[in-house]
Amino acid sequence: MTTFEGTFTQELSTLRFAVVIGRFNDLVTEKLLSGCQDCLKRHGINVEPDSTQVDYIWVPGSFEISLVARQLALSHRYNAIICLGAVIRGHTPHFDYVAAEVAKGIAAVGFQTGIPVIFGVLTTDTMQQALERAGIKSNLGWNYALNALEMASLMGKIHQQVRSSTYQGNNPSQLPVSSHNLPIVNESFSEISEQLE
Predict the structure, then answer these.
(1) Is 159 a catalytic residue?
(2) Average pLDDT over residues 64-76
(3) Other C-beta atoms within 10 Å of 127: how many?
(4) Cα–Cα distance for residue pair 28/23, rounded to 1 Å
(5) Which residue in the list 43, 76, 94, 180 is annotated as catalytic?
(6) d(CA 174, CA 164)
(7) Distance, C-alpha 68 to centroid of its chain
(8) Distance of CA 91 to CAs 121, 122, 125, Å?
(9) Which residues are CB-contacts of 89 (< 8 A; sequence separation ≥ 6)?
(10) Global confidence as pTM
(11) 108: which residues sit within 8 A by CB, 6+ positions away?
(12) Which helix (H) or strand (E) holds 69?
């Protein structure tokens, strides 16, 4: 039996990341981005504007994140994509529609492409709750970056193992989970997946 785990070692210095940030509620998303950059930097990733390791893409709001994340994932230039946004409940059902679709869209990108896509979109009832999660009490931007680092490392190890002789047989039960052998869990995912092939 083989155990796979992502690690935080020197291998990280060769990885590339994209960070997609929703501009709406930028008081929150800029703080999330700051926490994200701090984590990446402390793990040896160059986060400066001239960096070749991290690209930053600003979109109008959280709803647009998954479309851009999908384009970035399809480029196969990145080891992981971090999606940062903030959807705050108002007085209409708009929150429920946006929050649900953003979550589905971001999950679909990861399933369809096999690229780790980190869901870093805060969904809170109030601005105060969002600010608490973006720096007043803790900064979840740090956690989202840490998840991206671990998943990029883990997926690299799994891909390496798949390419090795260990899994060259035709027994699908020996294959690690990837976007190519995951069952499609939603009709809309299935339709999109067919279009990608």
Answers:
(1) no
(2) 97
(3) 14
(4) 9
(5) 94
(6) 13
(7) 12
(8) 20, 18, 10
(9) 95, 124, 125, 126
(10) 0.81
(11) 66, 70, 186, 188, 189, 192
(12) helix 65-74
Cβ proximity of 79 and 18 under 8 Å: no
Task: Give domain 13-167+174-196's CATH superfamily.
Answer: Lumazine/riboflavin synthase (3.40.50.960)
Of 68-72, 96-100, 131-135, which one has max mean pLDDT?
Answer: 68-72
Pick the closest to residue 175 from 109, 117, 114, 116 (CA basis).
114
Residue that wins the pLDDT comparison between 81 and 182: 81
Find the mean pLDDT for residues 56-78: 97
Domain ranges of the chain: 13-167+174-196
Residue 94 confidence (pLDDT) above 90: no
3-state helix, strand, coil in the chain (%, to 5): 50, 15, 30
Specify the length of the chain in residues.
Answer: 197
What residues does 87 pair with on adjacent strands? Answer: 123
Phi, psi (deg, nearest 5) at residue 117: -125, 115
What tokens were used for 52?
A: 């070749």
**DSSP string for 27-56:** HHHHHHHHHHHHHHHHTT---STT-SSEEE
